[in-house]
Amino acid sequence: xxxxxxxxxxxxxxxxxxxxxxxxxxxxxxxxxxxxxxxxxxxxxxxxxxxxxxxxxxxxxxxxxxxxxxxxxxxxxxxxxxxxxxxxxxxxxxxxxxxxxxxxxxxxxxxxxxxxxxxxxxxxxxxxxxxxxxxxxxxxxxxxxxxxxxxxxxxxxxxxxxxxxxxxxxxxxxxxxxxxxxxxxxxxxxxxxxxxxxxxxxxxxxxxxxxxxxxxxxxx
Length: 220
Fold this sequence. Notes:
It is a single chain. By secondary structure, this protein is an all-alpha fold. The chain has a domain of 68 residues. The protein is built from five helices and no strands. About 4% of the residues have low confidence.
């Protein structure tokens, strides 16, 4: 790409040299002989136009202007916005990391403070171990209590089965007693009737014997 640019610049330089030489020839007065010839034979002259031989695009005209001023085309540089954006992002990341360290990490402590913290951690570890042992004992006691509850539940189930059996036996006995009472009540009525009939017969016989005429006593 740079070779192409150099070729174009060199070509434009040659064109400019031709143009300047043509302009100088036009500005310098011709010799008398040439003037006489020109006056004798009128000829038509055309001005030299260097742009008619090359491309007349905007970039080409800009290159010609820069070459005329003696300046070379500057190389195109990349956009700086990406670099600035990345710098801002890096600064933001650094600030967030610093805030995280200041908030979550312990600052540098003195030796006494670190020793005190170490003692507190040891004491806390001992308390944790003691609590763990107490929890193990409590778990064992709860397990034993659960076993006792299960045994009591089995005993209660057995007792409930025995009570159900006794309830059925009592119900059967009560039914049997009701039947016996009914039978006894029915036989008692019959016996009372027989007894009443027998007493009535005895009373009637007594009345009959009491109403009989006694024979008169005889005198001798």
